[in-house]
Amino acid sequence: MKAICATDLSAASEATIENETCLECLDRIGVEEIHLVTVIPSNVHAGMPGIDFEDRRKQALTRYRRVIENAGFDAKAHVVRGTPHRRINGIADAIGASLTVIGSRGKSPLENRVIGSTARNLARTTVVPLLVNRIERGADEPDVLREHLFRRMLYATDFSENAERAFETFSYLRHATREVTLVHVETPKDPSLPEDANPEARLSELATELENWGIETRTAVRHGDPADEILAAEDEYEPTTILVGSRGHSRLRRLLLGSVSEDIVARANGNVMLVPPSRTA
């Protein structure tokens, strides 16, 4: 399995790369090759006085590459120019990556929905599963907040086709997962099930699949706004990562009101893993 690790060479992105436990978690789910990607903005030129961003980035990537190779992975580095999320997606597509990882400091104490622009844009456009690794805010040498990336998962589902696609990632996440909370949110604004459907029974079926792999599970049906209730479940169960499909039933509602998954990326306390629709969908 190949993974992209996107970095802007900030302390936040360095925290993910240099955290031994995070790297061990990636190894457990089958990652063998990590591609470090940093993007130089198009408006930064090598000839600008006193600036050699490309050379500085190559030197930093060389150091990161040694860390990754010492952890047992094959490592490759890419220094490219352009719009960050577009170039990251392009490389992920070109190499056949199974996962993109990016560090993010998350919400600002002053602004509840502020996240890094690249993380936000990747949440909207990613072509492969995206892991947003939450980093401490306000620290000169920040660390990851929940380093056991996949140990305790909160899986949120509206029972859509793409939610099922997100659930399928447990085929490899299970090697690093001990506990899963399965959550469905019923909402009158955008009902996702027929009136005679039984969400508890459907969650129970999913739980049985996970239990057959030796994973401890619990289920919860909540009522209200999907993003609010998923985040309330995060506060209650304290997972290391929330797992969710990046599209649900109502594409029109997403265009009008914004994506639930993007809201979760912006507001979650811990890590978030988004699974996009199939590229052939």
Automatic annotation (TrEMBL):
<feature type="domain" description="UspA">
    <location>
        <begin position="32"/>
        <end position="132"/>
    </location>
</feature>
<dbReference type="InterPro" id="IPR006015">
    <property type="entry name" value="Universal_stress_UspA"/>
</dbReference>
<dbReference type="InterPro" id="IPR006016">
    <property type="entry name" value="UspA"/>
</dbReference>
<keyword id="KW-0614">Plasmid</keyword>
<dbReference type="Pfam" id="PF00582">
    <property type="entry name" value="Usp"/>
</dbReference>
<dbReference type="InterPro" id="IPR014729">
    <property type="entry name" value="Rossmann-like_a/b/a_fold"/>
</dbReference>
<comment type="similarity">
    <text>Belongs to the universal stress protein A family.</text>
</comment>
<protein>
    <submittedName>
        <fullName>Universal stress protein</fullName>
    </submittedName>
</protein>
<feature type="domain" description="UspA">
    <location>
        <begin position="150"/>
        <end position="276"/>
    </location>
</feature>
